[in-house]
Amino acid sequence: MNASHGASRVVALVPAAGMGVRLGENKPKAFVPVGGSPMLALAVSGLIDSGSVDEVVVMVPAELVDETRALLPVSNILVHVVIGGAERTDSVRAGLNAAPDADFVLVHDAARALTPHSLITRVVDELRAGAQAVIPALPVTDTIKAVNATGAVVGTPDRASLRAIQTPQGFEAALLRAAYATGTQATDDAGLVELLGATVRTVPGDALAFKITTPLDLVLANTLVAQDGTTGTREAVTTR
Ligand code: CTP
Ligand code: MG
Predict the structure, then answer these.
(1) How is domain 3-228 classified at the architecture level of CATH?
(2) pTM of the prediction?
């Protein structure tokens, strides 16, 4: 049965095989707790509870497959655990291979553990409305500069046209498979799709979908959960 209206199947791939070097905890980042629950469990619960996803594939380090099965939420939704790879693209490729029946694919970082349900649904709704590729975007608040190898500024792009990009990123499954088949590299999944010449649409992101990357991010995430019970309500804080 599909979680949402329509016959097409939405499979969420959750890359969780990174080491979390910048966070500096004593375990891979997706397994670090936020408000007492591993980030990965929170991210998967968010996808399931959004009601917009039919199946989930999580990609984890090989030695943590059994531990992952034990920590994932119990649900009617099929959740597969597969072994990730050395780079994030390798992990996503492993997830794609485990989702042969997908019509639409979401790729959603485990490290965006507090992502609101409404953002997940916004991305899926845009796909169902006909978009081939959809990414959440927020205006940038800092001025961004390009620098050369010596650190000297070489340009200041107009901030009004810049966006910070989050996950979940959503794609027609065939398009993302084609992008991965090229074997090229990009810093996000949409970047690979752009190289094929496909149109990537943006929807408003949400500040709560921030990626927990540094120790400061972890303090913020734990504080949000402690103060607001964010993991329970997942209310959006920003819709533009
Ligand atoms: N990821 C993955 N496989 C990799 C690298 C990253 O599945 N080989 C996942 C991470 O687990 C994370 C997401 O991709 O959920 C975003 O990556 P990032 O924030 O960079 O996480 P890490 O790579 O774990 O962190 P760091 O770069 O600080 O080591
Ligand atoms: Mg990384």
Answers:
(1) Alpha-Beta Complex (3.90)
(2) 0.95
